[in-house]
Amino acid sequence: MKPFALTVLLLLFAASTVPAQTDTQPRIETKLSTAQGVPGETIALRVTILVPTWMTQPPLFPEFDQPNLSVSLPGRSTVSVSQVIDGDTWSGVTREYQIVPLAPGNYQLPASKIKVTYKNPDGAEDLQTTLDIAPLPIAVATPKGAENLKPFIAARDLTLQQNIEGEPENLRAGDAFSRSVTATIEGSTVMLIPPLLNSRAPQGLAAYSDAHKAADTSDARTDEITGTRSERITYVAEGSVRGTLPAVTLRWYDLDDDEIKTSTVEAIKVHARGPGALSGTSLWQKLLLFAAAGLLLWLLWRWGVPRVHHFQSERARRAEASGLAAWQRLHTACNTRDYAAALQAARKYRQHAPVAAQSLQPALLALGAVQYGDTPAHASAAAAWQQLIQAVEALRPEAHRLRQTPLPPLNP
Description:
By secondary structure, the chain is an alpha+beta fold. 28% of the residues lie in helices and 35% in strands.
């Protein structure tokens, strides 16, 4: 038993003199600033890689782009780090991603692999290994009370600025002015800002849009995202204009105050006078036009007006002489159901066409019986009037008698 006990003691002594072995495999850590957010809120993802010595080649970090997720890198996205592990100093790098969800939903950053090359602790050839990043879920929901905010914009601040170049209320045809609107969003991406201006304009005002400018920037000290979107439209008055360019309003959700706020710029009134009738002509041309117009008016008054009066009088005389005027008065009286006027017009017509007027007599007698006779109460005058109208229509003068005589020439 003594030899066996001595052997055990020797083994225990040898084990106590061997230094403890530590895990020298590279390590990777991932951390989300939050796993639950709202659309437009910035979520930070930090990926840290540590090795027991130092890296001889920079690691190739993955990309996490996917629909409805805006993934960007801040100004100082990758920094060197060190950490004491089991009494030894490990070195490595940290990569930060800024993730901005653009719409509600459940997202998952995909699993990824990172190849790491680092110095062998034993001084031999460099070592390589592959580190795994597990899938990372992110839940995004619209805050309570902001469900009807469309489009949904979340930020820490959002401002609108407007600049007008020109005088939109004092324009003439051909004049132009421009309208510029700039939206600045803090704490979120410019991708959430919708179009600010449209090309619709009041009648007589043409709109010409410039290409919009949009960009996100990151503060080097705080990594805070700030986005700006600028739009500019030039308007040209093509004629007389009186109208208004509408105000620009954005409703947005304040991430700090948890409430809906409104940013707006005022509407723009537009007034333009149309071109004058003689615009673009010289003074002498205007004088010649005025002189020609005056001469034309004098000729019309001197020669045209008397001839028109003569023509009208002659036409009326011919109509009376031919019986056309009498027939027209009779026709009008029948259409208006005026019995007294119809009798008087029939007498006048009989003077011009006694033979033809005899065909009117039966209808006139029937109508008189309805008007003043002892006809039963249920009898209607409509049939009698219809009989008279048919008789009058049968006497309509021929087309060549109704044809108007053309105006005589001014200079026969």
